[in-house]
Structure formats: structure tokens, C-alpha cells
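Q: For a teaching session next week I want to show students how multiple molecules come together into a single three-dimensional assembly. I've collected the sequence lines for a complex. Could you give me the predicted C-alpha cells for the whole thing so I can convert them for display?
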Amino acid sequence: MSAEEDAADVARVLAGDVSAFEPIVRRWQKPLINLAYRFCRDRHRAEDMAQEAFLRAYRALGSWRRDAAFSTWLFALATNLYRSEIRRLPPLRMPLDEGVAPLDRRVVEAVEDDAHRDRVVRNAVLSLPAKYRDALTLFYFHDMDIARSAASLGVPQGTVKARLSRGRDILRAKLRSLLGEQP
Amino acid sequence: MRPEDLERVLFSEDDIVPSSGFVASVMETVIADATAPPLTFPWRRAWPLAATVVALLVCLVIESFTVQAPGPGLDVYAWFQTVVPMATGWVAAGLLMAIAVTGWSLRLVRLR
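A: Of course. Below is the structure for the complete assembly, covering every listed component.
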């Protein structure tokens, strides 16, 4: 993805050429939909959220300052929207409250299946308090890049590191309970 | 579950592929947004109210500077002489704030 292409297309859109927004959508549709998906775990809802993010980006294109990469600005805008959406309408997930009893033997055996275990882990991430969920989601989405995660969340890098550490601790505790593991 | 396994699960997530009509759907929405007529300020409703407020303000200002002899009985005029200058300031401040907010709203509508 080219920063120059983004800048050129944005300039064309701002000059009145709405069709120049299409290449921007083509370039960024996959990352924005996948980021939304990690927040909601629902493919259709992820596309709806990404569509809304693109619409807001189109309306706010004039506010993009060239001192940051277009992608940084776009991800920050999308992250902000996704967090609001999830706060407004939380995703459906299995109950993962603290202190939940370990699953029975049958389920434990099923959990041994990798795919199922992965789903349990990802659902457990959604059950974390928002600030830890957001930090973990953005960190792994951005290929474990603290700086990009911090830029998307609009918080200092140190804050992201602290939230990642605490988030992982809570997540491991939840998973021990869910997967029936000994501490 | 070992920490490295947890990291692997969280890191190695398969991407989903956007549906084929996604770009067209977004562009349809964007074009509809771009070509939609801007929200117009409801001048027809706002003018009478604005005119009333301005007239009231003018009256208060004139009243505050007009010297009148106090009449017999209840000294309402003296009370007004004390209160009106203060009230005028507040009304003026309120009016200025209303104008500023209206201007800001119009600017937002234009930006949209």
C-alpha cells in the first residue's frame, strides 16, 4: 500500500472528485473489515462497521494532517468508531465471568481441538474489560507493533504496554478456568 | 495453556475476505452522502425568535439609559434601574453565545 497513492487520492477527493475515494476503499477494505471483525466476531457486522468507518473517513478527510500517515489516521478513526459501536451493542459471546466453573470432561476434550481452543481464547479476549481488550486486539492486529497500537488507540506507548501486561494476566486466569487447567 | 501458545493463538488469526460487493456498497453510500443536499438552517422558524430577542435587547438597552422620574407608589423604576444594566450584560452575553453557536453549527453543516 502506497502512502503516495493515499495522499494523491485524498487530494483528488478534497478537490471534488468523489470517485477517487474508491481506490482508498479498495486498498483499505481488508484491514478495516478485519479490525472490525476482531472487535465483534461477526462477519456481517464487521462489514457494516467498516462501511460506517469509510463513510466517516470520507466526511473527515479534510481533517487528515499530513504529519501522520494516512493509515495511522484511518486506523485511529476506525478504532474509535469500533470501540463506540461495541460499547453501544456488545458482541454476542459465551459467558466468561470470573469464577466460572471448569467445563465438564466432554467439553474439555473438545477444547483439545485446536480450532475450538482458539475460538475460546478469542472469545475470552472479548470478555476482558474494554481497555485491555482494545490493547490486545490492536496489538495483535498490528503485528505486535506497540507504536502503531498506541497511535490507533490514541494513548502513550507505555500505557499500551501496561494494558497488555495486565490484559494477558486476566486472560490467562480466565483461560485456566475455562480450559480446566491447574494454576 | 502456555504463554507462547497464547501468543501464537492471538497472533495467528486468519484474515476474512471482504464480500465482493463491499466496495460498491461503500461507494454508493459515499456518493449518496456527497450528493445529498446540505441541511439548511431553519431560517423561517429562527427569524421571529431572533427578531424578538434583538427587540427585547434593544428595549432593555434603551430602558437602561433612559432617565425617568420615579412615579408615586411602588418604586419599580428604581428596582429596574439597578437590575436592568446587569441583566443587559447577561442578555448580551447570551445573545453573543447564541450567535456564535449558530455560526459554528452552520459551518459544520457546510463542512458536512
